[in-house]
Write a structure and sequence with these properties.
Layout: E1 4-7, E2 10-13, H1 17-28, E3 33-36, H2 55-60, H3 64-68, E4 73-75, E5 77-81, E6 91-92, E7 105-107, H4 110-123, E8 127-129, E9 132-140, E10 143-151, E11 156-160, E12 163-166, H5 173-177, E13 181-183, E14 190-197, E15 210-215, E16 219-225, E17 230-237, H6 239-242, H7 250-258, H8 262-267, E18 272-281, E19 285-287, E20 291-292, E21 295-297, E22 303-304, H9 312-333, H10 342-363, H11 369-375, H12 379-388, H13 396-402
Parallel strand pairs: 1-11, 2-3, 2-12, 3-8, 5-15, 12-21
Antiparallel strand pairs: 4-7, 5-6, 9-10, 10-11, 13-19, 14-17, 14-18, 15-16, 16-17, 19-22, 20-21
Length: about 425
């Protein structure tokens, strides 16, 4: 079929959290914005735990009242559990932050949460095309000038805009296609997960807490209580550990690990497993660049870190809001040069590197939060801030202290804008 052509202010690929957040911001600025989504919402997605500093982008998007009125499980804390079942005291966010705002967050079902985000973008004036695949980028004079698409019914289209935002999640359309994807030197774990219904969960204010339960070789379970009496449970570890003895089946891997942590075994001893077992591997990666002329990356398309501290959803929302503001400012100035996006890339990488240092420390067998806090009691607040997603702060003093216990990685020289599309 012949392709229709339409001109816009911005095209966004992907209606997940980053894409919908960016679309909402741009639409609120009065921009003509189109979101192209391959799937039909609602659709399944993993990554269900919000952390406290998700509050600020969600407030900017106008979604706090809807979340407060939703069925999503409220979350006030996180707890760490040793393999023998011994649990730490819960880390309550309200001991550090305002109980009625930042300190209360949610465990979300992504199919419902992402639909809420997308509908919010539509309500603010963004247009969304679902079941539409981007078949290629339009390039003109060394820059990206839009996208070519094909709808599920076969209809083709061409959408032109001064800037295209790649919010395609872990598939990272642009980063992969242009050779920008870089694996993290260390954070290449395997995750296996599933869901339980009717299993044991805590009561009262602790009902919605995230539990990080350790297994040998610095592996760990997540236990995330959801509404409707469901729990998301997954195990993350080195592939060679999970597949030991030649085990390759995801369900077999998961079931074997249950016995490696007494707390997990107890909580899953009642109720029943429901739905499939899921598996993913080597899921920590970075993009070399945040921008090249006409093309901006946001969310997981820019970077995805190991999920141990549930930073992914917060970073996606934050980067989406930042991208929307940065693009609007560039359009307002009539300047979409790479220099306009230096600060965007630098600020995102600052937050990512802060969280990355904490993740690296976590996986070192010699590290424990308890040891750091016992030696430096005032470090507890900064650790809490980083774990809670306040990752834009200067944590120089904290990293100097943590490095007395374990080595920390150097910052990766990544994320700066690129002057020319397709340049190395």
């Amino acid at each position: 079929m012949p392709a229709d052509t339409e001109s816009l202010d911005a095209v966004i690929i992907g209606a997940g959290p980053a894409g919908s957040a960016a679309a909402t911001i741009l639409a609120e600025h009065g921009r003509r914005v189109l979101v192209i989504e391959r799937e039909q919402f609602p659709r399944y997605h993993i990554g269900e735990s919000l952390i406290p500093f998700s509050y600020h982008p969600l407030e900017r998007l106008g979604l706090i009242p809807r979340l407060a009125a939703s069925a999503f499980q409220k979350k006030y804390s996180v707890v760490f559990v040793q393999p023998n079942g011994q649990a730490s005291q819960p880390f309550y966010f309200f001991n550090r932050y305002d109980r009625d705002t930042v300190a209360q967050t949610w465990q979300v079902v992504r199919a419902e949460f992402d639909l809420m985000l997308m509908e919010n973008a539509r309500a603010k004036g963004a247009r969304v095309l679902e079941q539409t695949t981007v078949t290629g980028l339009v390039r003109e004079g060394g820059r990206v000038a839009g996208v070519r698409t094909r709808h599920a019914n076969g209809t083709e289209g061409t959408f032109l805009a001064p800037v295209t935002l790649d919010c395609t999640g872990k598939e990272a359309l642009s980063a992969v296609g242009q050779g920008w994807r870089v694996k993290d030197p260390f954070l290449n774990k395997v995750a296996v997960w599933t869901y339980y219904r009717g299993s044991r969960r805590e009561t009262g204010i602790d009902e919605g807490q995230t539990t990080v339960a350790f297994v040998p070789d610095k592996g760990w379970f997540w236990h995330i209580p959801l509404h409707d009496d469901r729990v998301s449970v997954g195990v993350v570890a080195e592939g060679k550990y999970l597949s030991r003895g030649g085990v390759r089946d995801a369900g077999a891997m998961f079931r074997r690990e249950i016995s490696q942590n007494a707390w997990v075994a107890d909580h899953l001893s009642m109720g029943e497993q429901t739905g499939p077992y899921y598996l993913t591997s080597e899921f920590s990666f970075h993009a070399r660049h945040c921008y090249s002329p006409g093309l901006l990356l946001a969310g997981d398309a820019f970077c995805f870190l190991d999920p141990v501290f549930s930073s992914g959803l917060m970073l996606a929302l934050k980067s989406g809001v930042m991208a929307g503001d940065a693009v609007h400012a560039a359009l307002e100035a009539g300047d979409l040069s790479p220099a306009r996006f230096v600060e965007y890339g630098r600020d995102l990488r600052t937050g990512i590197e802060n969280m990355r240092k904490l993740v690296y420390a976590f996986y070192n067998p010699e590290f424990s939060f308890k040891d750091v806090i016992e030696k430096f009691p005032d470090a507890a607040g900064e650790i809490t801030d980083c774990l809670s997603g306040d990752v834009g702060k200067d944590f120089t003093r904290l990293w100097e202290r943590v490095s007395q216990f374990v080595p920390l990685p150097e910052c990766l020289p990544l994320g700066a804008p690129l002057a020319e599309v397709g340049a190395p």
